[in-house]
Design goal:
single chain, DNA polymerase, domain 1, 10% strand, Rossmann fold, 240 residues, six-stranded parallel beta sheet
């Protein structure tokens, strides 16, 4: 006769019950500390046009779409004769060159968490306002397969804070956004993740991210693992 204990399923832990279907990562400021690269490119471009720039203006643009950022730059420096797309192209050229030639400044704990999720076979997607050429420059520097999917800012009709980027990422992965954890560092990005229905893990870097429902805040990704994300998702869904 079989031991009854061997035929009874063990109790399900929170991590088993609420394991994220996928983790959807922002790029700039979340996976890598690229904001200084963008700011450097902004100062260089604006100065080449004979105007002046400030860190306050640069901070204002964090989390915005690239075209919105390009339009803002032209508004600030009074150059209606130029197109936002032209500004974006110039900024991208410099940032891609930096990503190709210099060490990428990964955020603390980001690569370790990404590896942990890969080991646990939890799919990850990179979801960014940056254009495809930027994401491809980053993906070239990572071991193959770290991200199952990626969504770039020039591949959506509406960028963050609209939910489209994260909804598209979830669709490409074949999961529900509500069952995912989004990792973000900006207010617009966090709003996009929450609007998709996902739980947002906000790790502030340069700008304040408001506290709202289905959003948790952490100072760093260092030390976070699958059980931590599962516990946060389980708590959020239990109170929904």
């Amino acid at each position: 006769m079989n031991d009854p204990a061997s035929t009874i399923d063990p109790p399900r832990t929170v991590s088993q019950a609420q394991r994220p279907a996928a983790v959807l990562w922002d790029f700039d400021g979340t996976l890598a500390d690229t904001e200084p690269l963008w700011i450097k490119a902004e100062f260089a471009l604006v100065e080449s046009l004979g105007a002046t720039w400030s860190y306050e203006h640069a901070e204002y643009m964090v989390g915005n779409s690239l075209l919105d950022s390009g339009a803002y730059i032209l508004q600030v420096i009074g150059r209606p004769d130029l197109e936002p797309a032209w500004v974006v192209d110039r900024l991208i050229e410099q940032v891609v060159a930096e990503l190709d030639e210099q060490p990428i400044p990964w955020r603390p704990g980001a690569l370790e968490l990404l590896q942990t999720l890969n080991d646990a076979r939890i799919p990850c997607a990179l979801v960014s306002a940056s254009y495809r050429v930027i994401l491809d420059a980053v993906l070239r520097r990572l071991p193959y397969g770290r991200f199952t999917e990626s969504v770039a800012g020039d591949e959506v009709s509406l960028g963050k804070p609209d939910p489209e980027p994260y909804l598209l990422a979830a669709e490409r992965l074949g999961v529900r956004a509500r069952d995912c954890v989004v990792i973000e560092d900006s207010a617009n990005g966090a709003a996009s993740g929450n609007a998709s229905g996902a739980l947002v893990l906000a790790v502030e870097t340069y700008v304040h991210v408001p506290r709202v429902t289905r959003r948790v805040h952490r100072d760093t990704l260092v030390g976070l693992g699958v059980d931590d994300l599962a516990g946060l998702l389980g708590q959020a869904n239990a109170t929904a």
